[in-house]
């Protein structure tokens, strides 16, 4: 079996494999911000995957992340180790490209768990009755124009930087102008070109899908919710993607029971020292100098396996080789710990951690459920 870089000459074969695996493709396998790997068996392309270039917020800082998707194996080649070989190669590729984290949405979780990915957050859509929006004053808003794109992006990132897991939507993977194709995009203008908030939605045969409802302050958020509620005369409800959990969790009036559609995403720490160095650690300012000695069990990423010491000092956190290995951490434990999805007690009960890891819990804290608001 040969694993190699996906090239433009492979796109037709790659798109075919993805179409067979998933029923459809949303776009070509290669495009700006995306690269790929191909597996060859008997001289023909038998499997593919793609890796998107993302930056994911943790602790207020962005960490480079490889978004793995489009993992497809030709039916004749299944059961011959093609998928596993592609994933092993992807780990090496992401490390070489400076992506110490990787995330994916898993249709077959066991395959990815065997390679060290583990559930670390959610993407959620809430089904909102439009007649239960909170009362609010009308605020000045207008349709988005091209000149608002940078201000809209800055508004999104101001909020996203406070929610662990959200992507910064930077180029080249994201094209800000794509939002202009949506049916409904309202912005709340501020001073000097600033955007205080915005609402982005698509009207389809099944109703209204709200991709983002983002505001810098409560007045803006409530005003945008009022605008969303104006659809109540036309529709009973809207489907709202959770971008800012403050909007959907604290400002809306869901009853005791409501409908939510959840897509779980899995995270993999590809390079522990690099991931820790890139992450923000707000709680480290309040932790006295301390260290925890780790024994990382990760046969797929030998570059960070074995004894590693995580050190906290003067508000900084880093990982260096050495230590006693007192705390054993399986590769699958690293993702949910890093994101804050699971604490050491849950990881211990799942058989993914042994030893006293209280320092790891103190560092991550309890910042809320890690979230993505983009599917890939």
Automatic annotation (TrEMBL):
Keywords: Transferase. Residues 1-140 form the N-acetyltransferase domain. Coiled coil: none annotated. GO terms for molecular function: aminoglycoside N-acetyltransferase activity. GO terms for biological process: aminoglycoside antibiotic catabolic process. SUPFAM superfamilies: Acyl-CoA N-acyltransferases (Nat), SCP-like. InterPro entries: Acetyltransferase_Eis, Acyl_CoA_acyltransferase, Eis_dom, GNAT_dom, SCP2_sterol-bd_dom_sf. It holds the Pfam family SCP2_2. PANTHER family: N-ACETYLTRANSFERASE EIS (PTHR37817:SF1). This is Putative acetyltransferase. It comes from Saccharothrix ecbatanensis.
